[in-house]
Amino acid sequence: MDSADSLSEAGWKVFEAVEDVVDGATCAAKGIIGPPPWLWATLAVVGASYIGLCVLFMLLIGFRPKPRPPRTAEKQYTTISSDGSVAPPQPLACWFERFDARRIANQSHRLPANELYQIEDPEIFMTLVVPAFNEEERMGGMLEEAVEYLEAKYGTNTSGKSGKANGNVEKQTNELKGWEILVVSDGSTDGTVQTALDFARAHQVGGDEPIKARKGPWNTSAKSTRIPTGSIRVVQLEQNRGKGGAVTHGMRHARGQYVIFADADGASRFSDLESLVRGCEEAQDKLGRAVAIGSRAHMVGTEAVVKRSLLRNTLMRAFHLLIRALTTPKTARIRDTQCGFKLFSRASLPYIVPFMHTEGWIFDVEMLMLAESADIPMVEVPIGWKEVKGSKLNVVKDSVGMALGLAMLRVCWGVGVFSRE
């Protein structure tokens, strides 16, 4: 095949025809009409577009949100022992690592969906995840209101039929008791960790000292509640990840049949958790999956919203319009995606948490879009909410960041930079 004589006469004619087409001068000399200019222009546009898309795809890969892997110390928790001392760090329960192992195995041989998305049965009824960054001043009142409700409603952990969270058709029941609070300190530099541990020590059953209760945004009188030993677990992230990173980290280690995350300022009325649980139970599908979204949409026009600055209300409305324009249909219909009070059934966690990428303020939207893509029922539930001083949100800077983050999120999922594979 390296000799010119080995090429047939027909082959040479093909080469000559190609040369004639490409070489405009030759075409003109032989009286052959070459390709029209519009064809060259079209080819140039198509080629430039292809190159542009390739460059854009590479840029998306390079600048996409990349969640930081947890460090060894971040997979442990600290709590208060029955004698009031700080217990040595202990490993957190982690359904996520077992799911991740199955997901890796799934790449070589496909597993049935009900096996891939299995999750261990719950140990308790409710897990509360509290993301906290420098919240020593505001967290005490919120914890006071939370433990009062949780202990009164769900009591101490007792044995009972918990139903299944493994994608089986059995509905979950309320017979399971018990609760936990995972305070995830997101690289705090103040006394957030010590505040949580001091609160646990003062409130645990068997404590000798009288409890000095702290008022929260919703309790009119400071009321103290005794809590089971070890029910408050403190997780320390060595470096700040953002609210979304702290929430996702806590949800990876949840033991509850239901998992709620709530802001450390206590702005959401904690007793409205009952309405979210009811909404989840009514909405859940045959796999036991559901998400209940605490909503402040009914409060538009009330004093809590009217008192906000004109700039904040304007940016809020603009952001909601952007969400409707850029998100998937069901998520776009949710009137309040950003309220920090959302409840997830345990069976829904493997469909959402392992695929999270965003660690900033926009993480709520990604969670809801993931739930929608997995056909998980979502229900919006009105809750009480108050403005609490001391927010870490920079209205202008973070609004722009959330808008850019939302656009990046939508594009990355849309073009396949992010996927469930």
TrEMBL record:
Its main location: endoplasmic reticulum. One of its GO terms (cellular component) is endoplasmic reticulum membrane. Its EC number is 2.4.1.117. Belongs to the glycosyltransferase 2 family. It catalyses: a di-trans,poly-cis-dolichyl phosphate + UDP-alpha-D-glucose = a di-trans,poly-cis-dolichyl beta-D-glucosyl phosphate + UDP. The keyword GTP-binding does not apply. GO terms for biological process: protein N-linked glycosylation. It comes from the Eukaryota. SUPFAM superfamilies: Nucleotide-diphospho-sugar transferases (SSF53448). Gene3D superfamilies: Spore Coat Polysaccharide Biosynthesis Protein SpsA, Chain A. It is an enzyme of class 2 (transferase). It is found in: Endoplasmic reticulum membrane. Residues 128-220, 230-309 form the Glycosyltransferase 2-like domain. It is a single-pass membrane protein. One of its GO terms (molecular function) is dolichyl-phosphate beta-glucosyltransferase activity. CDD domains: DPG_synthase (cd04188). This is dolichyl-phosphate beta-glucosyltransferase. Keywords: Endoplasmic reticulum, Glycosyltransferase, Membrane, Signal-anchor, Transferase, Transmembrane, Transmembrane helix. The chain crosses the membrane at residues 38-61. Pathway: Protein modification; protein glycosylation.
